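> call design_seq(struct)
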């Protein structure tokens, strides 16, 4: 049995997300962010061979007070 979804559910999920990226010449790596509801996921790309990718997950309702 495969994963099942309907188009309406998928549309509501995608429309309720915020997605952002930040890249500039002044930082060694890029940052991608996804927010849905109270949750925010942040991914920092690999800066160099000694500093691998980093992942952060925040609950905006409880973590940032």
């Amino acid at each position: 049995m495969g994963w099942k979804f309907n188009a309406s559910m998928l549309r509501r999920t995608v429309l309720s997300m915020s997605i952002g990226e930040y890249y500039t010449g002044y930082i060694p790596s890029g940052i991608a962010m996804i927010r849905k509801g109270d949750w925010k996921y942040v991914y920092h790309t690999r800066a160099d061979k000694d500093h691998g990718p980093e992942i952060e997950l925040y609950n905006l309702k409880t973590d940032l007070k």
